[in-house]
Design goal:
Radius of gyration: 22 Å
Shape: elongated
Number of domains: 1
Number of strands: 0
Bound molecules: zinc ion
Length: 191
């Protein structure tokens, strides 16, 4: 079934005006709706979805979302409670405390304390946690009294790779959802 692009655009625009639940949007086969709908559903524990919502998205999608959510929750917990070790505990080369004693230095002690009191708690906040995409900026904005600038930078280099996992998991989830969704003829919207 072919639907010309302007008609498809009109249809999608009209549907945008309706108050459609995220679970319903996920099933309508409009590619551009899948990512925001999936992210909306992931804002709450998947097990808290109503029975109707779970039936609407189906077992496979619910399992995909639930697995991703669990993996990211465990990953977040691990990052929150483990201050990134800078150069295997030696600190940044330019740090005044660089060397085997760095892990017992005021620099490392301040880093560990700040990590838990500011970053760790922020990542684990029950209602308004720091999101991974904002975490790096947040960490850079922290007044890291006692930690050398070089160690903060080196620590961020270590943690940046860990924050990437969130994007990787989301990409895998979206790929799976795209592959498992029968696209609607109204999906033929070209920009
Ligand atoms: Zn240091």
């Amino acid at each position: 079934m072919y639907i010309c692009s302007p008609a498809a655009r009109w249809f999608v625009d009209q549907f945008e005006l309706l108050d459609i639940t995220a679970s319903h949007k996920l099933t309508l086969g409009i590619r551009t709706w899948i990512e925001p709908a999936a992210k909306a559903l992931l804002r709450q524990p998947i097990y808290q979805l109503s029975m109707a919502e779970q039936e609407e998205i189906g077992f496979d999608v619910a399992l995909t979302l639930s697995n991703a959510q669990q993996l990211l929750a465990e990953h977040r917990l691990q990052i929150a409670v483990t201050p990134p070790h800078v150069h295997y505990g030696y600190g940044a080369v330019q740090c005044a405390h660089y060397g085997s004693e760095h892990k017992r230095s005021p620099c490392a002690e301040a880093w560990d304390r700040i990590w838990w009191t500011r970053v760790g708690r922020g990542l684990l906040h029950p209602t308004n946690p720091i999101t991974f995409d904002k975490a790096e900026t947040f960490i850079r904005s922290i007044e890291s009294t006692g930690v050398s600038t070089q160690c903060v930078t080196a620590g961020l280099d270590v943690i940046a790779a860990k924050f990437d996992l969130h994007e990787q998991v989301m990409n895998r989830v979206l790929q799976k959802l795209y592959e498992g969704t029968s696209m609607s003829p109204f999906n033929q919207v070209s920009d």
